[in-house]
Amino acid sequence: MTGSTLRRLRTFVLMMVVVLSACTDGGAASTGRAPGQVGSSPARSQTPSRASPDPLEGEWRQTYTCEDNVRTFITNMHVISPRTRRAMAETTGLSTARPDLIAYYIRDFAWGPSAGTATRLTPQALCAGAGDRTEIMRVANGQMTFSSPGGGTWLVTYELIGDHMLTMNDGGQDIAVCESFLRCTEATYRFTFEIAGNRLWFEQLGRKHQDPWAGGVPERAPYVRVA
Taking the model in full, what pTM does it have? Predict the structure, then answer.
C-alpha cells in the first residue's frame, strides 16, 4: 500500500468521523460554475396533473482537467469547519492552518508528471503536462452510476427536491457518518443543480460539514448530455 493510498484511507476515516448530514445545514459556498440562480419549486396546481419527467435521467459525460480536480479540492478545504480541521491536524500531526493541511493532501488530487515532485504546490505546477479525464454518469430510476475508464463504479441513490435540488445517498459506502472505522451509518449529501441546454452543473450545499473527496466529484466540472 503506497503512502498516497494510506493518506487517503486515513482521510476517509477522519472525514467520515467529522462529517454531518448536509440536511442539518442549508448554507452554500458559491463556486460560480452554474449559470443563473436556484429557483423555487412551482406552486401547487389546483387541478391534478401528470408528474413532470426527471430532467436528470439519461447519460452524461464529465470531462475534467487535473487543475479542475485540484481547484475543487482547495475550494472545499477553504470552507470546511474548524472542527474538521482540528481532527485533520490530530491525524496528520500538523497545525490546523489550512495551507499546511492542503499541502499534505493536495498531491493526491493531481496526476501530472510532476505531481509527486513539484516544489510549488499550485494547480499549474502539479498538473503541468496532465491529460484530461472523463467520467460517465448514468441516471435512471432514482439512481446515479458514476464510472470512469479504467476506474471503479460509484452507485448513488438520489431524490429530487423541487426543480433545482437533490439529495444523494450511497448506503454508507462513501457518504457516511462514522463513530469509528468499523461503526458507520448512512448520511446524505445535498446539491443544487442547474441545466442549460445539454449542460449540467452541480453545487454542494452544507459543504462545510462534508468531506472534500466524495462531495467534490459531481461539482469539479460540468456534465454534457450524451444520451
Answer: 0.73
Nearest to 10 by CA among 105, 99, 91, 108: 91
Axis-axis angle for helices 3-18, 98-105 (nearest 10): 130
pLDDT tens-digit series, residues 117-147: 999 999 999 999 999 999 999 999 999 999 9
Q: Are 125 and 118 in contact (CB under 8 A)?
A: yes
Given a cut of 70, the residues of the chain with pLDDT beneath it are 1-51, 176-185, 207-211
